[in-house]
Amino acid sequence: MIIAERKPLEEIAAMAAPYKKICVLGCNTCVGICMAGGEKEAAETASLLRIHRNKENQEGEVDVFSIERQCEFEFIDEVLERLQGYDLIVSLACGVGVQTMIEHVPNLRVVPGLNTTSMGYPTEQGVWAERCLGCGDCVLHMTMGICPITRCAKSILNGPCGGSAEGKCELGDDIDCAWQLIHDRLSSFSRLSDLTEIQPPKDWSTSHHGGPRTTVREDVRIDRGE
Amino acid sequence: MIAGSNLEKVINSGNFVVTGELGPPKSSEITQLKHHAEEMKNHVDAYNITDNQTAIVRTSSIACGSTLIQMGLEPIIQITVRDRNRICIQSDVLGAHALGMKNILCLAGDHQSFGNEPGSKGVYDIDSMQLLKGLKDMRDENRFMGGDELEAPISYYLGAVENPFADPFEYRVDRLEKKINAGASFIQTQCIFDLDRFEKWMELVRERGLHKKAAIMGGVTPIKSLGAARYMKNNVSGITIPDELIDRLKGAEKKKVEGLNICIETIQRLQEIEGVAGVHIMAIAWEEIVPEIVERSGLYPRPKV
Q1: Cα separation of A75 and A68, whole Å?
Q2: Distance of alpha carbon A53 from alpha carbon A107, whole angstroms
Q3: Considering only alpha carbons, which residue of chain B is nearest residue A200?
Q4: Residue A64 — φ and ψ, nearest 5°?
Q5: What CA–CA distances, in Å, run from B238 to A137, A168, B3, B255?
Q6: Which of A196, A201, A202 sits opposite B174 (nearest CB)?
Q7: Which of B121, B141, B216, B236 lies 20 to 30 A from A92 at CA?
Q8: Is B225 part of the contact surface with chain A (CB cutoff 8 Å)?
């Protein structure tokens, strides 16, 4: 899922300062699950924003509600009329949600209340780890299900590098060396010899480096006719 | 003979090879670098010139290499994959060759977050293995990484680094073999302070006959003070310093003298280890000591080949 965390309140308050009718809009899917922008966090953010604005003697009101997903037109449509009453929407969706909102409702002023950090999963309560960079050409079959593109700080395909020590990355002890993990898993499946092959340079054109990506599936598109 | 560099000739002659290291400055004022190069010119066979080491912005390796060539000295250009994509790397290699550089050391480079531009975007388009293989193919197959042909052949002597002190230990020899297969003719190791571990690693190297496929050069660094030792132990990625060594320095009256002794003893032991072809002396911020190290290690004069 998509992982995000709320921007500092001061930053949100500064974005909202020039506006009077403000809506904090939560998103209940990914960012709801990672406790950054769901219903509960939206209510909390709205309260904090109200208190802050009161202190600063800023006039106006701060409303709050949430929708299931800000990244799909259908869900936005359900609240279309309601959204029109606001000078500013503070979206507690990921960056995708914010952009879906303005694309679908161009007259809305929408600002991000979250910083979108990564695609990953919770490894324990309160800890979310990045696991996919969306490179467009998955290599997990070669690396025993551990992504070196994402989890190695240098995205090395022929690792581990010389900075790997006691299973940790040279960046710090809180980061596992992805290639140590791959090495250990290969070892446990008696497949260490897989590492002898020199992996060629990756074709990054399938990733963001090839330009912004659009996925088209002709087989599921709706034929709109002539 | 591949590229005919002095480094390659000394290695091929079977003499114990000696290389030094020059770190370009955080300015374009390279008088000091030239001075250090001059100082050790009779004591080393070639000079590594680092490529923005520890991710700190410095004069480029190739620019300093060009200066060395003008002085009649031989650089080993370092190329990291941290700051350049394959377009830039290959372009720089063409340029370095055009300027007369014959030795290239391929490495990944310290992560940009360690340096003075921690907010910069790391490139890592290719890794150090792919860099070696790509440059080997440029030289031996006359084609760029993308498959296009070079308009004229190119030649250089390729090297790589290996860290016997990184983990997983057993894999370090596999990785060395992989680097040799990818194109490395010479190998410079990370600074050796833990000689026992290095010897264990060399045993595995010899078991596979890898010392016959590439020249293995042990990396050494003279330690100037207890603080420097502690700093390296705790802050420099990939370096291991055993506690006994720290204790020995601690017990010594003159730390600098003891640090120097340790370095020279290490080089003397390296000369006795079967399969070690040479030493790479990284006297960071203590370059003027290199002649003494080389002389006291019994490696002076350098062979004329």
Answers
A1: 6
A2: 25
A3: B130
A4: -150, 135
A5: 31, 11, 31, 23
A6: A196
A7: B121
A8: no
- Between CA A222 and CA B35 the distance in angstroms is 73
Check if the beta carbon of residue A196 is closer than 8 Å to that of residue B178: yes
pLDDT digits (tens, 9 = 90+) for B235-280: 887 888 999 999 999 999 999 999 999 999 999 999 999 999 999 9
Diameter over CA atoms, chain A? 68
* Beta sheet of A127-132, edge-to-edge order: A2-6, A114-124, A127-132
pLDDT recorded at residue A225 = 64
| Partners of residue B166 in chain A, C-beta under 8 Å | 160-165
A119 Cβ neighbours under 8 A, 6+ residues apart: A1, A2, A3, A130, A131, A132, A133, A134
Where do the structural domains in chain B lie, given as residue ranges? Answer: 6-293
Which residue among A158, A177, A204 places its CB closest to the CB of B127?
A158
Chain B residues close to A195, C-beta within 8 Å: 171, 174, 178
- Using the beta-carbon criterion (under 8 Å), do A160 and B166 form an inter-chain contact? yes
The 10s digit of each residue's pLDDT in B68-117 is 999 999 999 999 999 999 999 999 999 999 999 999 999 999 999 999 99
Q: Is CATH 3.20.20.220 the classification given to domain B6-293? A: yes
Q: A198 touching B, CB under 8 A?
A: yes
Nearest to B270 by CA among B179, B187, B198: B198
Kindly give the residue spans of alpha helices, DSSP state H, lying in chain B: 6-13, 31-39, 61-70, 86-98, 128-140, 169-182, 195-207, 226-235, 243-251, 255-272, 290-296
CA dihedral B128, B134, B140, B144 (to 10 degrees): -160
A203 token code pair: 């074709």
Residue B288 DSSP code: G
Residues of chain A with pLDDT under 50: none
What does residue A195 show for φ and ψ, rounded to 5 degrees?
Answer: -75, -15
The residue assigned the tokens 């992560």 is: B111
Contacts of B145 in chain A (CB under 8 A): 201
Phi-psi map region of A86: left, alpha, beta (phi>0 left; psi -120 to 50 alpha): beta
**Alpha carbon distance A123, A108 (integer Å):** 37
Point out the residue among B126, B165, B168 whose CB comes nearest to the CB of A180: B168
Instruction: Please state, in angstroms and rounded to a whole number, the distance separating the CA atoms of residues A110 and A102.
Output: 7
Give the separation between CA A118 and CA A116, rounded to whole angstroms: 6
Task: Give the residue ranges of DSSP H helices in A30-72.
Answer: 30-33, 39-55
Q: Following DSSP, what letter does each residue of A140-159 receive, concatenated? A: TTTTTT--HHHHSTT--SS-
For the whole model, what pTM was predicted? 0.95
Domain coordinates in residue numbering, chain A = 2-118, 133-210
- Cα distances from B278 to residues B16, B18, B101, B211, B286, in angstroms, run 5, 6, 21, 11, 20
